[in-house]
Each structure stands twice: as structure tokens, then as C-alpha cells.
Amino acid sequence: MQTEAALQRGRNDPGLENPTRRSLLIGSAGAMAAVSLLGFIPLAKGEEPKTLPDYAAWKERNALILHSANTMETKRGAIGNGVITASDRLFVRNNLPAIPESETENPDAWEVHIEGVQNPRTLTVGELKKMGVTTTASVLQCSGNGRAFFPHGASGTQWSVGAAGCVMWTGVPLKDVVEALGGAVAGAKYITSTGGESLPEGIDPKTIVVERSVPTRAMETALLAWEMNDEPLSNTHGGPLRMVVPGYYGVNNVKYVKNIAFTENETDAKIQASGYRIRDVGDKGAPDQPSMWEMNVKSWVTAPLETGSSGRNMIYGVALGGTVQLEKVEVSVDGGKTWKQARFLGPDLGPYAWRPFVLAADLSPGEHRIVSRATDIEGNSQPEGRTDNERGYGHNGWKDHGVTVAIS
Amino acid sequence: MQTEAALQRGRNDPGLENPTRRSLLIGSAGAMAAVSLLGFIPLAKGEEPKTLPDYAAWKERNALILHSANTMETKRGAIGNGVITASDRLFVRNNLPAIPESETENPDAWEVHIEGVQNPRTLTVGELKKMGVTTTASVLQCSGNGRAFFPHGASGTQWSVGAAGCVMWTGVPLKDVVEALGGAVAGAKYITSTGGESLPEGIDPKTIVVERSVPTRAMETALLAWEMNDEPLSNTHGGPLRMVVPGYYGVNNVKYVKNIAFTENETDAKIQASGYRIRDVGDKGAPDQPSMWEMNVKSWVTAPLETGSSGRNMIYGVALGGTVQLEKVEVSVDGGKTWKQARFLGPDLGPYAWRPFVLAADLSPGEHRIVSRATDIEGNSQPEGRTDNERGYGHNGWKDHGVTVAIS
């Protein structure tokens, strides 16, 4: 009965994107127990909780769409035109419930074990803080941002554009830590990070643990962050310590990071082996499919969204290049027939940050389809369409991301 | 009696820096009435109000030193190491009480009159928003920041280092507005901005109005801002519309701006004619003395502040160049005998922004005097000492700004 109800929830509560349903699909008594252990609030399809969950109570409720207790999206109209997303407006997406605040009361005591290096060691945040520091502006974006636009009904949270934000991360460069421990072992090809969330009993940990591998090329820019936007990193967003891989999709930025291993192979945890893989609609996930690592070039309009007055309108939006610096953003007010280059707004915070843009356009009365198209310095441009894929990942097609505005 | 009590308050509540005492010094019945009209809370020397005034109730109380209801300083330990100061930690310094929130409910309807241009016009914020937009990171700093370090007891709020912050301003470039109105009249040498605060009856408006002139060279970078840190500009900080002159001392960034005039001469308002002038101790203010316009190069340490453990310490601070890009910051842990170059932390937001810096230093047990010294790309460096001046303006001497830290 409960399983049936869960299945009815369909697209809002699916697979790996939400351990509740994932557990329910396992269908064992252990998994059922896990549901309550995990403590998620189940929602009927289309239902939105009225209040923020405790661990995110400090968020700006009016800026967010609450998909579930562990998935909250920034409203398109609340993204603003700033180079940095205010913490209380930033989206939330937790694969497992956040660790309790009680575990973060003494953040400097949080421990992370580093292995696959010459001198493996357990380090506290307090020790990391003396090993080096850097501040990097980087876009945090869920792999499934834009999923709502897939017509096949990709399972998972139905994010539109707001499972993304640009924040400042402060922490120690991972390479400084690795260097201090004698360097990575020979043959290491991946950096494998493990989250510190409590796992429910009765389930194979590999099926539920948040453990992600990224290629060692990410070491040049990765950091172990203890601050976000110049404040101690909250447990809502992975504090006391989070692995931050600038330009990589959100899932690789492992929260409450407890273990970092330099490994020859990717982890066989489900979230890596079959989860977060680009595959044809209907296919099962497998390790040989492309993993959600570097983000692709993308942009979307943030204003106007619904209505406007004829004459001069300022069209705003944000654009990101993933790991590649942006070159330009073009905007069309006729659904892509003609384009004009927009102007970037505000300071450039580096290749991993997004860039707000603006275009002054004279709009005549009637409906206008406003779309934007970003191009990076390597010449990668957003495609018109989308690459359909089972889980609705990585959508950067400009057509679906546009808005229709009625000008009177 | 009341006047006597006011005089007793001495350094905490003086002259132009605080209209309460200024009015009291006038000594007329009209001025006495003005005190209550202005609505400031009088404070005894050294007394700090417990709670934030209504117009600033959204501020982070624990981050601030409340000098008075219209002067609140960011604690040195709350400055952080971010490129941007969070709005709720930013200092407050109002020459007159903030306009009531009721006047800002429809910010787009706020009007500003532009004169001294070919086609003078009154424009609403709504109209300005369609004329152009820019986002500039800029340090906001009170002319009297550092006043507490002057030994002669300069009158005015006893700011230490926290009457400064770096924020993002979004608004229309002033030059776009002027261009749209046909350009400035011939012979214009100053941009004169007038604040929209209500003035009490019975006082010559020229003695109390916030009206400041800056040289027209500031037009290249000035903007009329309606947002701060990607949010609508609050009345606490001068919203709906504020004149922002990047790199200039705070007073020139006129709040609630109602009138902007291109003029041949500086205004004869007291705040310009005799206020905010660098003059010898004991001298009266006069128009021929240097005005507090462009900020000078400056830096200060933000951590550690009091104690630390021996061994590796990370020394943090912030540095600004006024209108000139910074070249470097050096740090000394022995009171200025030896120096090491610090590293800038985080992205460079442009010449008007501050730059956080960090230096890893090995400290032995005992007392350490930690000081910092910034240099801009034109070779201007912070002096060791200070230029004593009547009102305690513009202090950028590195010696006074240091901290003494006990290392155990």
C-alpha cells in the first residue's frame, strides 16, 4: 500500500534523486525502516510543503519552491542579477538528510581522513585551516537542473532553472593538503570523497552512501571548504567541511566530507556506478556511461518573466561556462530568429562563476519569446534542443529555457 | 541643563558628525525642538544601546558596535575575509535620521531632479531603471574611520576600523543619465547631490541638509544605485536611490538622493563648506581646506585579534586603494621591523573594491604587534604615522591600525 502510494508520487519523488523512494523500491522491511530513519517528509505529486524544514529554517521562504524537505529551488524571479547568490536564496538538494546541527557545534573538530597519499592522515578542520586558504567563486548546480523541460517525464525533482546559484567558497586547496601528505600514490586516477551522513541500518551502505569520484584533473582547483559567502558553512549546505570541485555538477561537491581517497578506480557506490549517468531513455545506469562531472555552457533569462510594458525593457539573465570562461551571451526576443549580444553585468569572478547579463530591448505589444544563448571561449555554444536522457540531466538547450512575456 | 549634559557627552556625540549635539550647540529653542524632531537617542559617553533602532532592526546585532542610533560600527572580528561585506554586517552612519520606510514602499516612484544639464528633468527610479544599468563593487567608508586612534580626542563617533565595508552597488551610470539629458552645462565643475531627508523647522536648512559636491571627474564612475548586494537598497542605507561615488568617502554617497545639480561652485551647505575638511587641530572648517573626497590607501588586520597558539598562524586583513588599484599588502608581526608580502584572497572585484589578504606566519610565544601596510599601483603606501587633524579624518597610518596578539 505504502509502496503503491509512493509509486503514485511518480516524477516528484524518484530513484537515486530521493532516497525515500529509492528505499521504497527496494521493498524490504529494512528499507521501509530506513524511510522513517531518514526522516523525509513524503509529498503527494504537485504538493508543496508550507514551511521550511528545521535544518533550512533560516532560508528565505519566499525565494524558494519547496519540492520536498530535501529539495528546494530558487524561484526564477528570485535569482536576481547579482554575481553572488545570497545564501538564504540558494537552492538546497540533499541526497541524504543533513547531519544534525549538534555535529557542527565545534566545526574545527570535524575530521576528514585522507588516503591514497604517501602519508595517509586524519586531519581536523582546525588543522586544515592552517595548511592554506583560497576563495573561489563557483556555480553550484544540480545535474538535474532543467529536468522539468524533458517531455518524457524524467524521474527526479522537477527542477526548472533554480537548482543553481553562484557562491563564494573559502577553504584549503586540496593540492596543498595532498602535497603536505607527500603527494598522491602512483596510479591514482580519481579523487573519491565520502559524505559523513549517518546511514540507516539494514541497507547495503553502497546503495545509499554519498560517495563520488572525480578525475584527478580536478585537483588543480578543488578545495575543502569551511565557509560559504564569508560565513561558516552551515549544515544545510554541507558544513563543517565540503569538497568543492569548481565547475562540476553539485553531486560531486560532497557534503560533510569524512574521507578523501586517491584511487585507481571510481567508487562502486551506486550514486557513482549507475547514478548520475547520461543514458538513453529507458536504459539502466552503468559505469561506462558518461558521468555528471564538468558542467556545460548554459544561460537563462531571469527578468522579465511574465508581463511588461511596451518600449524599452531591460532583459536580465545569468550565464555559466562550467569549467570554461564565457565568451558572450546573446539574447533573442523573437524565439531565436534574431539575436543581439547582451552585456555582462558586474565584476568577473573567474571562470567557475556565473555572469549576470543584461540587454536593453525595445519590445512592441504582444507575446515575446525571450531566449538566451551563451558561448564559451572554446566556442562551445548552447544547442537549440536537448539531449534526451533517462534521468533528465545536463539540459542546456536554449529553446526550452526561454520565457514567454506578454507586453502590453 | 540639557545643553550642559550634551556637552558632557563630549567625544561621543559631536558637531557635524551628529546633528543632535550640533543642534544643541546652536542653543536656540528651535534647535532644541529639532533634537526631538530628529528623534536621535542621546547616549551618555561610553554607553552603548542594547537594541538596534527600528530602521536598522534587520542588522546582525552581534556583528556591530552601537555607538548611537545613527552610528553602528562593524566589529573588527566580524569583518570576515570576504570580498563582499554582508549587508547585515555593514556599518551604518546617517547624518540625519533615515527616511521612514513608508516613503520607500514604492521605490520605483521615488523622484530625483537633475539640473545643470541641457534638459533638466525630474526622473523616477522606474525611469532610471530603463536608462542603463551597471554593477560596481566599492568600499563604503566613513571619513572618520580610525578616529579613535587620534590622541587629541577628535570629536565625532569614535570609529576604530569598522566604519567600512565593501558592497556591490547596482544602478544607472550617472553619465548615461546626463547624456540622455543633453550633457552638463558649460562650466560645470561639481556634481552636487542633495539628500531627501525631512529637515526640522526652525533651523537654517543649509546648516543641516546633507548636500555634497564632488568634482566632475567622478562622473566617469558615479552611479545612481537602487540595489546593494543584489537586493533593493534599504532605507537604512539610502534607498530607494543613492548617489554612489566609487572610491570616495561615505559622506559623498548621498542617501535618498532628491536632487543632482551640475554646478560651477561647491554647495555652501555647512556639511560641504566647513564640514568634512582636513584642518589643523583647533582650526575651524573652511572651504579652502581639503575636502574628504577620494579615499587614501589603507589596510588593517582582522584576525587574529587578541590571542593565538604558537606555530603556524593565518593572518587575515583587508586593504583598499580608494580610487587606485592595489599593488600589494605587506604584513609585519614585529611591529614594523620586518615585513612579508601577504597574498590577496579571492577574486579581484576592481579598483574600488577592497581585497582581503592572508599571510601564513610562524609565531613564537609572547606578544606580537601585527601591522599591515598597503601600496597602490601608483606607489602610494600607508604612512607609519598619522596626519593629526581637528576632526580625525582620513587616518591611514599603519602603526595605529595594528593589533597586539598574545601567543601562548
From TrEMBL, chains A, B:
One Gene Ontology term of the molecular function aspect: sulfite oxidase activity
Q: Name one Pfam family in it.
A: Oxidored_molyb
Domain Moybdenum cofactor oxidoreductase dimerisation per the UniProt entry, residue ranges? 291-399
Query: Which SUPFAM superfamilies does the entry link to?
Result: E set domains, Oxidoreductase molybdopterin-binding domain
Where is the sequence biased in composition, kind Basic and acidic residues? 385-398
Q: Name one GO biological process term.
A: sulfur compound metabolic process
Q: Does the keyword Nucleotide-binding apply?
A: no
Task: List cofactor names only.
Answer: Mo-molybdopterin
Q: Does the keyword Transferase apply?
A: no
Residue ranges occupied by any Oxidoreductase molybdopterin-binding domain in the UniProt entry? 105-269
Query: What keywords does the record list, in alphabetical order?
Result: Metal-binding, Molybdenum, Oxidoreductase
Q: What PROSITE patterns is this protein classified in?
A: TAT
Region annotated Disordered, chain positions: 1-20, 377-398
The protein's name:
Sulfite oxidase
Organism annotation:
Marinobacter panjinensis
